[in-house]
Specification:
Order of helices and strands: EHEHHEEEHHEHEHHEH
Structural class: alpha/beta
Strand content: 15-25%
Radius of gyration: 16 Å
Shape: globular
Length: 220
């Protein structure tokens, strides 16, 4: 199977770009961040500290997360409930960052991610796909942009969904998550040694998608 790993910080456009690239190339798109967001959401619902392994780990036995591909679109199910929209809030984002630093959570989701890649040509995005989950991926891309540009994009996305947020708050949360993701002891956010770094700060969405698709086509 052909596996493409796309990593990068929050708000870099990984999901949107990877999804579009997968559609154009005829691959399955796998948003691994959605898995961690689902675990984080469950922990939030249970009102536990999402950065506490002692409180989060006992919940794992109660959690079932599924990715279903419906009409070419990925939907995320938490214990049978479609939470595809609910996991996109800033609170779920920070909870995802917290729980992803817990080794037991990573182990819990690891096999699910690997099995999807074994059975499908896929583009999988996340923060440690090229370094940990799919170290033998045929193509590894590290997608990034300036913090200010990523915050602007995330702010506009949230506003379009009707969420009342301030740009300054979005930027602060994004910078906090950047620091947390890149400084955690377990699978920190960093480019794989053989990854291709693509900075989308100064190019639009269509150009970003074209760049990623061209990089993949040149190498597979």
């Amino acid at each position: 199977m052909i596996n493409i790993a796309i990593d990068g910080p929050g708000g870099a456009g990984k999901s949107t770009i990877a999804k579009a690239a997968a559609k154009e190339l005829g691959y399955i798109y796998v948003d691994t961040g959605a898995l961690y967001r689902s675990v984080g959401l469950y922990a939030l619902r249970k009102e536990v500290k999402t950065d506490s392994a002692d409180e989060v780990v006992p919940l794992l036995s109660e959690i079932s997360v599924e990715l279903k591909f419906i009409d070419g679109s990925q939907r995320v199910y938490l214990n049978g409930e479609d939470v595809s929209e609910e996991i996109r809030t800033p609170e779920a984002s920070m909870a995802a960052s917290n729980v992803s630093a817990i080794q037991a959570v990573r182990d819990f989701l690891f096999d699910l991610q690997r099995n999807i890649a074994k059975e499908n040509n896929c583009i999988m995005d996340g923060r440690d796909i090229g370094t940990v989950v799919l170290p033998n991926a045929q193509v590894k891309i590290f997608l990034t942009a300036s913090a200010e540009e990523r915050a602007k994009r995330r702010y506009l996305q949230l506003m379009e969904k009707g969420q009342e947020v301030k740009y300054e708050d979005v930027l602060k949360e994004l910078q906090e998550r950047d620091y947390q993701d890149s400084h955690r002891e377990i699978a920190p956010l960093k480019p794989a040694e053989d990854s291709i770094i693509i900075d989308t700060s100064d190019i639009n969405l269509e150009q970003s998608i074209d760049t990623v698709v061209n990089v993949i086509r040149e190498r597979v």
